[in-house]
């Protein structure tokens, strides 16, 4: 693991010449919440000027690609809608390939996921109710109700997640033929100033896996599942010429490690310098390079190429 800013000009030149394609995470790399990380707008511009191809890869399914695009554009990023990937499209495409006879799914997730599935012709089994005032007997009879119509359970970020929906998912998953799909498995969800951490959706997926003794098909980073979609969509041929820039060691660096990409860790989001000094992750997650933020990448590119 080398500090990018400590490289000689020769080494830095070799670094910039070692990749043609950049896969970059969004939150913690380009922005924190909706605020661009200082220097990140300029860094994307200068890397694009160098001819690098970009794909922005986020685990965030709380927003549509269209919304993410609008937000990044409004923040001044040089980004195209076609350059943004979330786990949503590969999730829908995987479900479509299963040829489910009833196309009926149960979703723990935000309205964006539900809408995407509806648009793809799926029927959503009812969630809820959202509030429960009755006795446990009523709750439990609702929670174990299963008419056998649900063919897949999808679990992702749901800011309105409740006990009943989690239990309903567990009930459906008791039938072994029901497909179990997980979106983001992040156990930490950084938000707001000072990177306050929320409980990530991965914790709830773990509850379902533990309860049902089943393993979900993971769609988001670090799963290589997402990569199959990326490779196909963007025609990536030589993985050794791809650089992944991310702020999360398990998700981003893990993904890059699973896919055979070069890794640049930025310390502007989840990962801190202390995580590098006291390494507690798998070896495959170790980034070749790290840097405080994209601001330094921009400054290094300026120093070397004057652009
Ligand atoms: Mg991130």
UniProtKB/TrEMBL annotation:
The protein's name: 4-nitrophenylphosphatase
Organism for this UniProt entry: Zophobas morio
Domain of life: Eukaryota
Signal peptide stretch: none
Pfam families: Hydrolase_6 (PF13344), Hydrolase_like (PF13242)
Coiled-coil stretches: none
Example of a GO MF term: phosphatase activity
Cofactor note: Divalent metal ions. Mg(2+) is the most effective.
Cofactor(s) essential for the protein: Mg(2+)
Protein family membership: Belongs to the HAD-like hydrolase superfamily.
Annotated PANTHER family: 4-NITROPHENYLPHOSPHATASE-RELATED (PTHR19288), RE04130P-RELATED (PTHR19288:SF4)
InterPro entries: HAD-like_sf (IPR036412), HAD-SF_hydro_IIA (IPR006357), HAD_sf (IPR023214)
Cellular component aspect of the GO annotation: cytoplasm
Residue sites binding substrate per the record: 221
Active site, renumbered: 25 (nucleophile), 27 (proton donor)
Keyword entries, A-Z: Hydrolase, Magnesium, Metal-binding
Binding site for Mg(2+): 25, 27, 247
């Amino acid at each position: 693991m080398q500090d990018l800013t400590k490289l000689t000009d020769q080494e830095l030149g070799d670094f910039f010449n070692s990749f043609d394609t950049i896969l970059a995470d969004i939150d913690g790399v380009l922005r924190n919440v909706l605020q661009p990380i200082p220097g990140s707008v300029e860094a994307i511009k200068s890397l694009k000027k160098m001819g690098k191809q970009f794909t922005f890869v986020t685990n965030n399914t709380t927003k549509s690609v269209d919304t993410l695009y609008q937000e990044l554009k409004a923040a001044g990023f040089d980004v195209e809608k076609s350059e943004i990937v979330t786990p949503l499209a590969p999730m829908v495409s995987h479900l479509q390939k299963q040829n489910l006879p009833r196309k009926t799914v149960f979703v723990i997730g935000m309205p964006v996921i539900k809408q995407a599935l509806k648009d793809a012709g799926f029927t959503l089994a009812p969630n809820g109710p959202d509030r429960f005032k009755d006795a446990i007997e009523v709750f439990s009879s609702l929670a174990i109700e299963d008419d056998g119509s649900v063919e897949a359970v999808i679990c992702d970020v749901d800011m309105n997640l409740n006990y009943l929906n989690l239990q309903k998912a567990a009930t459906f998953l008791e039938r072994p033929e029901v497909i179990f799909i997980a979106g983001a498995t992040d156990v930490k969800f950084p938000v707001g100033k000072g990177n306050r951490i929320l409980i990530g959706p991965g914790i709830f997926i773990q509850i379902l896996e533990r309860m049902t003794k089943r393993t979900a098909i993971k769609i988001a980073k670090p799963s290589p599942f997402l990569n199959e979609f990326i490779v196909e969509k963007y025609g990536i041929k030589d993985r050794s010429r791809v650089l992944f820039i991310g702020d999360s060691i398990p998700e981003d660096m893990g993904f890059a490690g699973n896919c055979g990409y070069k890794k640049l860790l930025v310390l502007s989001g989840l990962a801190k310098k202390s995580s590098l000094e006291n390494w507690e992750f798998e070896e495959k997650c170790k980034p070749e390079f790290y840097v405080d933020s994209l601001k330094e990448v921009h400054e290094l590119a300026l120093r070397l190429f004057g652009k």
